[in-house]
Amino acid sequence: AVGVRPRQALYRAIDRRVEHMFQEGLLDEAAWLLESGAAPGSCCGARAIGYAQAIDLLVHTQQQGHQGTRQGGEGGEQGQGLAATADDVRRAVAETQRATRNFAKRQLTWLRGDATFAWLD
């Protein structure tokens, strides 16, 4: 179909994009949302794919009482405050990747079922 990558290529691109989001400071942005008073799941931003997983990770980290740098994992250490373990960050990345792939799959299913769109091979 024109404009649609093969599924595996799309999923690889999604996985890379999610890794990039975490490396570029998604946890810091999610922490800012929490510090601004947004409770987990309380607003569109806190429910968005990526932010929801990052906020869950930060809340879990706070409950566990891990101290250190806020941005743990593969993007380098940034910001002072609570730190997630590398395993926790990997789990959040994997969960965000899974949620994003599932969302993309639902979008493609919806588009294929809409007669407004003509798919070209």
TrEMBL record:
The keyword Hydrolase does not apply. InterPro entries: Dimethylallyltransferase, P-loop_NTPase. GO terms for biological process: cytokinin biosynthetic process; tRNA modification. Residues 63-85 are annotated as: Disordered. Keywords: ATP-binding, Nucleotide-binding, Transferase. The keyword Cell cycle does not apply. Residues 70-79 have a biased composition (Gly residues). One of its GO terms (molecular function) is ATP binding. It comes from the Eukaryota. Belongs to the IPP transferase family. This is tRNA isopentenyltransferase. The lineage of its organism: Eukaryota, Viridiplantae, Prasinodermophyta, Prasinodermophyceae, Prasinodermales.
